[in-house]
Amino acid sequence: xxxxxxxxxxxxxxxxxxxxxxxxxxxxxxxxxxxxxxxxxxxxxxxxxxxxxxxxxxxxxxxxxxxxxxxxxxxxxxxxxxxxxxxxxxxxxxxxxxxxxxxxxxxxxxxxxxxxxxxxxxxxxxxxxxxxxxxxxxxxxxxxxxxxxxxxxxxxxxxxxxxxxxxxxxxxxxxxxxxxxxxxxxxxxxxxxxxxxxxxxxxxxxxxxxxxxxxxxx
Length: 218
Fold this sequence. Notes:
The chain is an alpha/beta fold.
């Protein structure tokens, strides 16, 4: 079992690349996934999108159906190699970049999307991360985050909390290796508390298994 360092989580997702999308085939989540896709298509119509932590491109495919173009980033070559094999409906440029630095993102974009990434940010790094992404966006850009709700009996149980209040899960891959992954869960109130100082025109969608928040950059 690995520790709670960020680079340990990166190694976990690199190792998980080939089985990453299995989570989206769970029968009980199909209606929620369908509703989520509908919401994202509404938000990103004709937008230039910066996608953070795009993974294998599952949600990149969805927003490409309506977007003008996408710059999609991830730190792991393993997931980017899979994402690059897919077909997209708009121009998509993949860039290997650290989500906490984004050194390679020069062009300012009209919108930002991060799916199932926000929950992995240590609470002490949230403000720095939000400040960074706002610098990469044009005035009045829209920001959209999507992530998991904690559903008792369906979500992987929380194994522990650290002194900062971050929660962790023990996850097992097909090779039977076990990994401790930082995974924080939020509700509508905690989301409002976090994002209230960063934007206006909030929309918070609480679905059966996921939450999606959209706001306009101040």
